[in-house]
Fold these 3 entries.
Entry 1:
Amino acid sequence: MKSYPDLFSSHRSDETKEEMVTIHDHLKARFAFTRQDLEQVLGRLKDSDLPWAPREGMPTIADLLLEIANKEKETLVWVQKGVWPDEDPDAFDTQSATLHKIRSTFGLLRTATYAYIDSLSEAELEESVHSPERWWEAMRQTECPLSEVLRNIAVHEWYHTAQLVTYLWLRGDDPKHW
């Protein structure tokens, strides 16, 4: 995969044709950019932080990390099998997971996501996918391109990464000093 800056910084000359940036490139760049932020948060955490939440009734740090992992796992199953996997087990157990196990799970899921993206043509990535009724990421539309479904895995990850940044900030770990 081209690195993110390389996607947009190549120069065109008369003798060299610029390689076109593909949907695959854009998706992988979005995933890499988003994961970079999550990794920065993970680097600020210890295993003992996983059960912490700012207030009773709010999701713990482990819960938010599980939400990130489960969404990627569930979405991959849905787009490959056509059925939302309501009964599948969670990506990891929040009570026994360690940061090492969570990072490993994230790595395996992202490898599977990239493999799935790589298995598709540009045309397949643009095919419409009917959205499950409860899937809000479709922006209240009944269908959207498969590439948008995949892109929303990263959007979802970023949303919860921002929550985790807020949790850390509430504990005095100012992200402006990271």
Entry 2:
Amino acid sequence: MMRPSSCSTLIMETCRIRLISRWMSNCFGPLVNIGIRHIAVSLLAE
């Protein structure tokens, strides 16, 4: 059995990782979509 302190630390780390990944997808998702659209438009323009 794990100690309660190590278990709570593990839960906190998991929550932090999920929060960061959600924040990253929220921030970089639109940027990636804009980038892909920009590349597609520039390729079609040529």
Entry 3:
Amino acid sequence: MLGLIIGAVALIPVGFGGGCGVKGWKDGAEVALAVCAKEKVESRNAILVAANANCATDIEGVRKGVSVVVFQVEEWERAASAAMKAADVQVARHALDTGQFGTI
């Protein structure tokens, strides 16, 4: 009976040691998985940061392009307005010169 008690007492540290060893292995595996996941996230983040920088550059280019188009349209509008004023003056002169002022 004493031998059985001594055997049981001797197996307790072995059991706890094995459990601690398995827990340490499991914790190590979880840390390795977390590190791997972190590296994937950092890699994806680097890709997204680069893409975001490209988008900012593209947006700035589009803004500059739109401002050029808007400026050109404003120039055309000013030229068209001036041409219409000049045409109105010519029509009025022609109407007065031909005596058709009242028939228009």
